[in-house]
Amino acid sequence: MILDIRFVEIMEEIKEDLELQAGLLLNKAQLKELQQYQTITLRESEIKPYVKDIAEYLANTQPDERVWSCHKDLSSNIYVISIEVNTPHIKLNTFDINH
After folding, report:
1. What is each CA distance from 77 to 6, 50, 82, in whole angstroms?
2. 29-to-32, 36, 42, 51 alpha-carbon distances in Å
3. Are 99 and 70 in contact (CB under 8 A)?
4. How much is the pTM?
5. According to DSSP H, which parts of 1-99 are helical?
6. Of 51, 73, 53, whose CA–CA distance to 61 is shortest?
7. Digit-coded pLDDT (tens) for 56-97
């Protein structure tokens, strides 16, 4: 149950960060994908208006101060936003798990 609560908090933080830092509002399908797979897969056309702001946020925020990251899959030209937690006790990247 504690892990479930933490994942809910992490997903809320991802949603809030994307909205506040990049202006990206996740739709219901994307929120469902995040809940089910702990990742959001976006086509280049979906994320293109937000890439600069996302990249700037990630570059200016230390990995241990955030709970997500964004990866580009060059083979399929998609972007994946994934949970990424780095603490002294745990290192988790859901991009590694799901892709």
Report:
1. 31, 15, 16
2. 5, 10, 11, 20
3. no
4. 0.82
5. 2-17, 28-37, 44-47, 51-60, 94-98
6. 53
7. 999 999 988 889 999 998 888 899 999 887 666 566 667 765
Q: Is 39 helix (H, G, I), strand (E, B) or coil?
A: strand
- Alpha carbons within 13 A on the beta-carbon side of 67: 16
Burial annotation 51-79 (CB, 10 A radius, 16+ → b, else e): beebeebbeeeeeeebbbbbbeeeeeebb
Tokens of 31: 């929120």
Residue 4 burial (CB < 10 Å; 0-12/13-18/19+)?
exposed
Q: Which amino acid is at 87?
A: T
